[in-house]
Please model this.
Amino acid sequence: MSELKEFAQEELVESSFELKSNELSVNLYKWRGNIWKSYLIHFIEGFHLISGILLPFFLTWGKLRFVEVMFLQSYFTVMILVFEIPCGAIADSISRKFSLLLGALSTAFAALIYGSYPNIFIFAIGETLWAFGAALTSGTDQAFIYDTLRKLRREDDFSKVMGRNRSFHLFGIGISAPIGSIIGAYYSLNLVMSLIFVPFIIATLISLTLKEPNNDFEKKKTEKYFSVVKSGFTELAKNKILRLLAFEMIITEALVFFLIWTYQIYLEALTVQLIFFGFVSTSMTIIQILFNNVVTTLENKINNKKKFLQIYTIIPGIGFILMSVIYFIPVSISLILIVIGFGFTRSLIFIKGINKQIETENRATVISTVNMIASLIRAILYPLVGYFVMWNLNITFILLGALIIMFALLSRIKNEYL
Model:
């Protein structure tokens, strides 16, 4: 009888082990699915059809002045500032999958509102929803991927996966920009904006199929909301390396970002016809795709990462300054691509080091805190850049380039931080 009991117990243990193994295999399969679904979501959400005709949408259909556009973007970044930490806390307290899903849905409806009527107050409502969607996904997508890779024991692939995410996103932008230009030319500019609803609804549906990689949410649900929010600031306050990496990443990124809002004015000064703007926009996305893949490869091969980062930062600064004095179309467009290629992929050098400094349970909240600070910097600079551009575009480029070079030369980042 005792032998029968022992046999039954052994069978029960083996059966339990098999069930756990099968469950683990299923989960591993689903977690691996998060990676390719993330690529697909980033590609679909890259269908910003309006990117090639953004300023014509605001200035022609929206009837705004350039400085009003800048104030509107300042409002957008302020709203991101308002939403960033609460949305990071939503991701850490409820579910990162839920945060990504809600972010895509919010952006879809923001596009519909934005394209409904040419009025700055209507635009502000659209920007509010768009900022909410951006805050929900900002930082959360990085945390979602990092925790998925931890489950798969592939943390070292983080930079590579994030680089591919950016590449797919940019590939979507590159395809959609000329399409948007054609629709805008033959139909209407606001239709282009309204059609952005479609890809973001598709992204929402795909987000429903993601597998949440963090098993600690049941514990975190019992925590008070404000304790989760506070953790983001606490992590930055106590970690000097994290603060340094975050600041040096976001300050240059904020300065380079203003080329997105000034290159079309620069093209007009070069007498480039409007029909070619979308193709320049596509070229800008293609160069980022190339650089995204190159920088992650070089980063792993180069030992002196600090020197690599300094050179990588100085180049777009020089590009800005050269744009202020060169008005020869082939060279000028090449400079635009150089500034975008180096400037917009620079953050990939930082994200691995930043994520190493963050405790897993607070990852989305801390990254959202960093993004909140970036939003604050852009909110302050937008109106200033708007007035400077209306006064003198060339001086604006010189100032942006000089600041980028100065921050690169004064960098306090050490090799081991990256």
About this structure: The mean pLDDT is 82.
